[in-house]
Amino acid sequence: MSPHATGRRRVHRSVAAGVPLVVLAALATAGPAAAGAPAHDARVTRAAALGDIPLGAFSDRLLPGTVDDDRGVDLGGIGSDIFPAGRTDEFWTITDRGPNGQIKVGGTKRRTFPVPGFDPAIVRIRVSGDTVKVLRAIPVTTSSGKPVTGLPNQAGRDEAPYSYDAQRPLSYNPDGLDTEGIVRAADGSFWLADEYGPSLVHVSARGRVLTRYVPQGLNLTGTDYPVVEALPAVLLHRKVNRGFEGMAQLPGGDLVLAVQSPLSLPDTAAGESSRTARLLRFSPKKRAVTAEYAYRFDPVGVVDPGEDDTSELKISSVVAVGGDRLLVEERTDRAARLHLVRLSRAADILDSRWDDDATSPSLEQLDDPAASGVPVLPKRLVVDLGTVAGVPGKIEGVALVDHATLALVNDNDFGMTDGAGAFDAQGRLVDSGIETTVTYMRLPRGM
Fold this sequence. Notes:
8-stranded mixed sheet; 4 helices; 5-stranded mixed sheet; mainly beta; 33% strand
């Protein structure tokens, strides 16, 4: 049963942003007890799964000849993000870079791309009963209409790509995108968040890259689309495979981008032990970053009891809930929690000393950023997804359905697992059995 068909009163929405105006008030008026712990009456009201769609057939319908062998992989990965499509139970989703895994060779992990011809796609879906139906798919292409692919961009900066068995090196592709976030603009174009650059990618309604915004100094050359160095240079220190992950669209059209993990500043060890990540505010009108914020993770053992590796913390989704407020999902691979944060001018650290590579200690090295004068974003726990029965693991996309309901989507990694056992002796996928699922969750009362 659709959450819209339960007899609740109609929710008035902001025409400009498509965000329920009552959400801001509902979240802001939660009782004092909510500051320490969330209510425990959040519940799943509905769930639907994507059926088996052979990846080769899916890809070749969009761009004929791009996938000659899908190795038995089905369409998946569309749970990298989710955004309302304007009709009840319909959403825009985005795949990531495609099937990929890791295999150790000589004691070193190699990044594998079993279907290197796969091209990231924008996928419109409808939740119908217990089924997720694909209504439309749009391939992400270059200026000349070629697939961008999901292959890494730069040797020495990105992981080297290998074949499915990690034996054969593949070529880098400067056009490649690891898309992890999506919003749709009022003019019908899309904004995508990419992990590689990290970068913000503006694409047309038909999926053609219009501009890719990257950090200053990245020096990404050889692309078949315009590249503009408009993001802070400090982002050059992003952890490998941990660039932009979540993206939200604020009222008025500004975008908020989340760096998935703390930056490796000044080095890998600092990033691995840090609990301070960064959010950026980008103005599509100005084509520029207009603010930067420090976001502080909870201790890893609080997010995921029993886990003691701080580097497992990551942001996987951010969603606007009205005004200047966001829900931020912080998680490990086993646990996830949603926090409410409010952006403010007073918390802006853009162009401060914390964006200077020479600052020592760096923002990421501070044990208590607030005590050092850093205006860390205040946050409040809304719901621990691990306490809600029926919520699948690895939630990477969150969308607002109405004033009390969220749609959650998981990333099933195309059924991939790591290790040499991911494929059988014939080179066919040994599927994990994890399905792409859209789950409707009603928020706790009073939230």
